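Reply to dn_fold:

You asked what the input looked like. This is it:
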Amino acid sequence: MPLPVTSLPSSSSPTITRQRRIQQAKQRRAVFMALLLLGAGVVGVRSLPHPSLRQIQESVWVSHPEPLAMSGGDPYVRALMRTISAAESNTNQPYNVLYGGNVVPQLNRHPNICVEIVAGQNQGHCTTAAGRYQFLTGTWQEKARQYHPKSSSWFSAWGDYSFDPESQDLVVYYWLRDASAWNLDIPRALRDGRLDEVLRRLSGTWTSLGYGIESNSMTARLPRIYESLLQEELTRFASSTALPTSSRQLP
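and this is what came back:
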């Protein structure tokens, strides 16, 4: 004898209609909650205090390189030095920074800390690059013997030159002004508007300046950065020379 067939409720039955309404209500609530959470997130981001946003930003990069620690000097060379640091040590603590972004508190000597290189052609090696101009330990000792403002026979014997901010600046300043070191009169080239030639010549030492193997996100911006910094340095130079007791001017 055939089994009795139970009639299925039609789509218009009260049971199906009620289930559909419950399901639609749940869907509307889910959409509403998603929109509510999204709106709260947007409001939350916008309501962050501006100092916090600046602090986060400055811990990663700076849009305007810090002024030099040293006083006086050729404004064209000063602008170039700050441009180099825009590519090499773009933080708000450039004199203390190691490769990779960590900072050291003491600058009585080059930190000589070898940090692993995590990208690029030298990945897997380590580098002792440190300071505003990312000096390797050996390069710092070599150039400090030639240009350090506080060098002496005792310092030369031990290679223990102060790595303080002003000394970092002065070593680079005198190095850049030494035409025999680069086979180029850099101050004259800058005055002639030959920045590209200067950056190309320096890129063998500071590879992030372009034309080398380690260009970074700042490299393409360097000409514009230099022009902005040059105007700032020229203005500062004009102001200092107008004062009766101006800052000591370097040659």
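Residues 14-46 form the longest helix (33 residues).
Hope that clears it up.
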